[in-house]
Records
---
Amino acid sequence: MTRQVSPQGLSWFQDARFGMFVHWGLYSILGKQEWVMHTDRIPVPEYEKLALQFNPTKFDADAWVRTAADAGQKYIVVTSRHHDGFSMYDTALSEYKVTNSPFRRDPIAELAKACSQHGVKLGFYVSLLDWHHPAYRFRAESGLAWADYLGFLHGQVHELCTQYGELAVLWFDGDWPHAALNEDNAYFLAGGSFEYPALYDKIHELQPHAVVENNRHAEPLPGEDLQGFEQDLPGENTAGFNTTTLYGLPIQICMTLNDHWGWSRHDRNTKSVQRLVHLLAKSASVGGNLLLNVGPTPEGEIPTLHQERLREVGRWLARNGAGIYGSRAGTLPPPRGCVCTRRGDRHFVHVLDNISDCVQLSGMSEPLQQARLVASNTLLERESLSPDGVSLYLPPDRRDPYATVIELM
Ligand code: GLC
């Protein structure tokens, strides 16, 4: 039988509720997000020249991890190798890697060290698809076989699982079973199976507490521990590729802070703090973690505006985190404009909309003893509406600017 994550690993992950996703690589130099090699039709020899330029002199692993910690994010998932095939760590399995760029350093080793100092866990994004590797893309020309690519992919996962301490997440991308291939993207086609059972077993053996997610937008396979959603909350499908079926697994929702994953020079559509807080509360209310992406600049910095937004979310969490961390999907019917989470037998109501001064609860299985605001510990006045319903008065001057959290006891 295929292994899964350990129960401790899974509950740590679910309790964490909030992580930082980082898309950073050669593509960051061009400032046109991580698909630029494909979208701008850059031939391999041209794109490879970026490796001679990569020198993010302002990269400071400690600063990244402090930003995540200040935001209240408990883990960081960083691109180890994206579709462009460039390894962002010192792999022994390729010369096309960051330590051969002018930068020379291994940023992932530096991140692993900073993470352990700040109590933030580390995880990796791994691309299954590779637009550069000869055994993926150029088998006819190179005489290599699909087995050579599999050896590389599985070998890299082995390196990542053994060289950077305890990991929280392995996040795979680039196998989209429902994506249509045409002559434009025919080179995305894999040469065979990725041999997931062996890949996942290796991870669960080497890193028993790490969760495995594969961004396939399809029913999770044995060995995958989560169901993932991309740019949408469960039930929504604005992205067009998210499934609306829930498979009963823990959930992780990845989202961008603006509209792109990798650094995108012209993208000014940064989400407001209110929207970020609401996404976090909504994710938690359906039993999901929010993996919120930043795309550092070619110099190696998380854009200042994004840092500011993250820190402000962190301040909201410092006031209201009791309703997020350690929580599971809410079981109370959410009042209008609200979402609910639960921690053991405690229910939390996250008031997202400022539509009136009372929150009217119904469908409570037990009588309410007390209701208090998490941030200020203020007890709320209440009035019974029916045997299972109650109205809580929310003093307007006690509202949180982003979301007011009420604990029911
Ligand atoms: C999509 C994109 C990829 C990105 C990922 C993050 O799969 O192809 O570039 O890394 O989403 O969710």
Note: The longest helix spans residues 146-163.
---
Amino acid sequence: RYRMPRPLHRRVLTVANQKGGVGKTTSTVNIAAALAMHGVRTLVIDLDPQGNASTALGVEHRIGTPSVYELLLGEMDLREAAVPSTASPQLLCVPATIDLAGAEIELVSMVARENRLKQALSPEALTELDVDYVFIDCPPSLGLLTVNALVAASEVLIPIQCEYYALEGLGQLLSNIDLVRSHLNTSLHVSTILLTMYDGRTKLADQVTQEVRGHFGDTVLRTVIPRSVKVSEAPGYSQTVLAYDPGSRGAMSYVDAAREIAERGAGRVEAP
Ligand code: ADP
Ligand code: MG
């Protein structure tokens, strides 16, 4: 069975785009699951109060559940908040509860308000969990939660939906990333752009694909995620599409995307 190559150093990727519905959560959980199912230990941080990533990974996120909210407040450490997902024993998740909805405001008056998540994701804590990848699923805004995610990561993965206005708002995201890089986190860069919800029947999808590749070149993964009913059905069963329908085009394309990400950052390729 194919094993994804492990990175030389642990990789922390923030999945961001302030537009809602572009495939942030879907891409986070399915890429993370693909890595985990192919032997690479991975952690997903659900940073959206909606808790959609927690749901898709079959992780409890009722109010009162230990979550990313307690991590941000410094009331709990990573080991206590990270739980195994149902997607794979190699995949852990820190869930988000609705408590997180208040955090955007509560953080404003806190010390080191932009650094809270970074502090929680200390090298020691991540080493203890023994994870090679961390994916942070952002809410659809550029507020303090997303800033915390950008400070905690060194890579940004931007999902772009192959639709009208695909590039709208991207300038704002990129300039926020620049701001965070110059003031808070010099190692931050956009490492990966993923085209999602591609519909091969429309000319528009190809136009968007070409436009995005023209702008961003090799940062854009070769793999494009097709629009697929299976992908959208899976979360309703608290599953990733890899578990829900492993042979579907959606599942296979997420495995391909994960492999591309892993191979780009590979320290070494493990023997099969
Ligand atoms: P975001 O996290 O950016 O708000 P989601 O990942 O939640 O976006 O996706 C928005 C909606 O689109 C969800 O209902 C999801 O199931 C659906 N969706 C995402 N990717 C696909 C796809 N490739 N094909 C069909 N539906 C998709
Ligand atoms: Mg989401």
Note: The chain has a mean pLDDT of 94.
---
Amino acid sequence: MAPSAGSVKQQIAKLIEESLRTTVPDEVDVEPAIAPCQNPKFGDYQCNNAMGLWSRVKGKGTQFKGPQPIGQAIMKNLPPSEMIESCTIAGPGFVNIILSKHWMAKSIQKMLVHSIETWAPEPPVKRAVVDFSSPNIAKEMHVGNLRSTIIGDTLARMLEFSKVEVLRRNHVGDWGTQFGMLIEYLFEKFPSGEVSGDQAIEDLQAFYKASKQRFDSDPAFKERAQRAVVSLQGGEEKYRKAWAQICEISRREYERVYQRLGVQLGEKGESFYNPYIPRVLDLLNEKGLIEESEGARVIFIEGKKIPLIVVKKDGGYNYASTDLAALWYRLNEEKAEWIIYVTDVGQREHFEMVFTSAKQAGWLPAEDNKYPKASHVGFGLVLGEDGKRFRTRSTETVKLVDLLDEAKNRCREALVQRGKSEEWTAEELDKTAAAVGYGAVKYADLKNNRTTNYTFNFDQMLNDKGNTAVYLLYAHARICSIIRRSGKDIEELKKIGTVELGHPDERVLGFHLLQFPEIVEEACTNLLPNILCEYLYNLSEDFTRFYTNCQVVGSAEETSRLLLCEATALVTRKCFYLLGITPVYKI
Ligand code: ARG
């Protein structure tokens, strides 16, 4: 595999950096300011350093008379490079750069030969934790957990593509006082002590509700439940067993969701960190961070009125103490350099307080652009079509599995209506329905800026027109069929053919393909999957324009154009992969 030379943007930045060293040798630490041109008429990239430099050097007896001459000099001092076709100066010294078509074509060809892995970005970390999905045992796995599962998986995939080792952590809520009541209720239903209640407590949510009702209405039960917590935390065999059983039933329910979505997760629940809490609190205490307040032990945070409670009045630990222990563990035992938490925006405050405590303790650097780093990835609510919090049908809870199955069934129905049940095997039909149905649910979520609320609507997400996974999957299948119908061996063409970008629409498409590495990098750095979705949608539009205006099969440029089709298919598939969507090859 050829080594990655960095994204096009990075390569341009390197050239500009060299030029800056010659242009303004006395100004150290000037970062090259490169952006894609807003208007492609003027060029592909633009260097915006001149203005900022002018305000730095003027009055220092500089040879330059204004920002424009600085721009001129930056342009003149660019080292010769086969990347660049030409440059122009615009306005007060912007340097517009036009890439060489020949170089662009060669870069695409290299990717075709050496695989798209050579286009992976290179982030500055080796190991990351992505804490996502993380439902609470015995409570409903709600659409919020689904959003976290979908967004977290994509972020993990983008980092993995970038060769970061990712610890995919399911931080399940498997600890806390609610287990006393659940265990006690389990004993009540199975007095023999022989807990074989798989069937009897299959519906854990109903079980949770019933036990809560007992807890709230019967003081004697409540007392027993409170004692059960102590027995559980003391490690008594009978209680541990009951607890483990309840966790196992929940787990089976989550697994059904993960299996449909093709999501891998390693469980390290809240209970895992429980033994670490006392030591971690000692460490924080030694730094003088923990204080007494109204009977509780707390950490006061700069800029916050309310402190972070780390030991409750009754001496018990809570969500925050667990997260502090987990953060300590991830930094010190797992040696993660980037720790990413995916939850709804409602938990922003909690994570801000935990991260600030860690900074005050010196576990994390104070500056946000340094590593190790902790990031909270917050997302908005899922709304129903009525604009209220999403719920399915009459029941108040959403069975996520049913929701996913409905997406798949609707897709199967649409395929049957298009006559595919006669054309395809049952297995093909099933696989395609699953790919399109689950893909549609994921894409509908990921294409929005995650911080906004989004409306769950089957009709919209399953539409085969517009910005949906269905449209994009079909577009991909169409590209594959163009290549198939040409009757050419594409692997052979990769070896002998050359890519050319003669037609303006070919050049636009080629440029878009080349931007893939910097887009993944941007989506990854900002933890925003919607950037990748937008890129993918625009790619399919650029492809359509190319295909409408440039004859592929039977033209003089057939080989080059087939290679361009293949490059588009490869980048599209990589986008699908990063978004957790299974591609389809025929429609
Ligand atoms: N179980 C929590 C919930 O359902 C999410 C946990 C997120 N991760 C964490 N380390 N706090 O809201």
Note: The two ends are 33 Å apart (CA to CA).
